[in-house]
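Two quick folds needed for the group meeting slides. Do the first one here.
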Amino acid sequence: MSAPTSVRQPVLQARGLVKTYGKVIGLDGVDVDLYPGEVLAVIGDNGAGKSTLIKALTGAVVPDAGELRLDGHPVSFKRPQDARDAGIETVYQTLAVAPAL
């Protein structure tokens, strides 16, 4: 049985993530806590910022504001390789993985 969330520490935290593309707001102060052994699904309408969030968490885009913490320590990923080096990888949704679908 796992400890309550209040006792466990997130492995990856995001606080106040903001990303804009000109006048388009991709992320507007997003907070996320990812815990060890947890599966998190990111769902929403087209244009809701799902891809932007994942890219911000994994170094594919650099947030305009906010903070990322890995195991409680501040991190700043400038490229996907930085996230990979820290043990974070992205599996993008694609039908090529399951051609029968």
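Then this one, please, same format:
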Amino acid sequence: MLVVRFVFAMISYGAGVAGGFFMPILAVGALIGAIVGNVLYSAHLLDFSFVNNLIIFSMAAYFAGISKAPFTAIMLITELVGSMRNFMPLAFVVLVAYLVVDLTNGAPIYESLAERLATFKQLPIFKGRNEQIQIPVYAQSLVEDQQVRRIEWPKDSILATIRRGSHEIVPSGDTLIIAGDLLIFTVFSDNSGKIRTKLIALTQLLTENG
């Protein structure tokens, strides 16, 4: 199941078709935890009652490593299991996963997608250190019900992903932005403050924009 899930995930994302990330990432993480747990149980190194714990920890660690969003990983898995009992172990494994990815110069999946889109569509790829900015879209804002191509986005910013409910959308020029969307941008770190201000002006209420 792990091999099938991993291979088909590469095929799906390689095809460039818009799709979600949460469930595939969590599924692979859970399968890794189940495999490790059963191996340790078979070797009489772990009681079977702890296998479920390894599945939970593995989901959190894998998600944190792929997205480089440790706090999101902790809160997401805590919400999924419906208990705070594993909060401290989750924080530990997520921290380790994040540090390993950071030390090996791993890039978060959203940044990697942005670079891939930049390659395909000849968008600018920023040299130097980049960061992600998440901006919610409010009703009656300037970008509501507008296509991505019709919006004058700030310079040195790339709209990498649109999170709509539980779905992740890789935007194209024809993608329609609606109220409630969470826009995830990859931006040049040196200009992140100014870019964030401009993005908020585009996505907040028109009455607030003046």
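Slide caption for protein two: The longest strand covers residues 157-164.
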